[in-house]
Amino acid sequence: MKGDYGPGENRYRALGLDLSGHAYLPLYPDHAALSHVVAGHPVVAGPEGKELFLQVTKVGQSSDRWHISVNNPTDRAITTTLTRSIPLPGLDLPETKLTVKPGEYLVLR
Predict the structure, then answer these.
(1) What is the pLDDT of residues 7-63, one digit of tens each?
(2) What is the distance between the alpha carbons of residues 69 and 53, in angstroms, rounded to a whole number?
(3) Could you tell me if 15 and 39 are in contact, meaning their C-beta atoms sit under 8 angstroms apart?
(4) Model confidence over 64-96: pLDDT tens digits?
(5) What is the enclosing helix (H) or strand (E) of 75?
(6) Phi-psi bin for 60: left (phi > 0), alpha (psi -120 to 50), beta?
(7) What's the whole-model pTM score?
(8) What is the DSSP secondary-structure string of 18-62?
(9) What single DSSP character describes residue 16?
(10) How far is the C-alpha of 40 from the C-alpha of 91, rounded, in Å?
């Protein structure tokens, strides 16, 4: 790894999704001994929150700076519980029960 985008350890990058909601990421078997990959969303809502938009973004180089926001695009309030599903360095989000009003955008961190 050349290190053009940082030291190559404890890196988090958002995955793009296609129109069907599928994400694609390259994995290189020749580098398996040097790599550890976890793919998924680091914060998830309970099943009742499946229509919410969750945004989790690493901010800057500091390990403890994260942006976490929730948007409710529906016309009704949604009550759900958010949980951290991937243990990323500095992403400390306790299990959080919240109600998001119709059209509301909440910044949690």
Answers:
(1) 666 666 777 778 887 888 888 888 888 877 888 889 999 999 999 999 998 887 766
(2) 8
(3) yes
(4) 789 999 999 999 999 999 999 988 888 889 999
(5) none
(6) left
(7) 0.74
(8) -TTS-B-----GGGGGG-----S-SEEE-GGGTT-EEEEEE-SS-
(9) P
(10) 14
Residue type, 84: R
Which conformational region is residue 3 in: left (phi greater than 0), alpha (psi within -120 to 50 degrees), or beta? Answer: left
Instruction: For strands 78-84 and 96-100, give the pairing.
Output: antiparallel
86: Cα separation from own chain's centroid: 8
pLDDT of residue 1: 45
Tokens of 41: 């969303």
CB distance 12 to 40 below 8 Å: no
Q: How many other CB atoms are there within 10 angstroms of residue 76's CB atom?
A: 9
CB atoms within 10 A of CB 98: 15
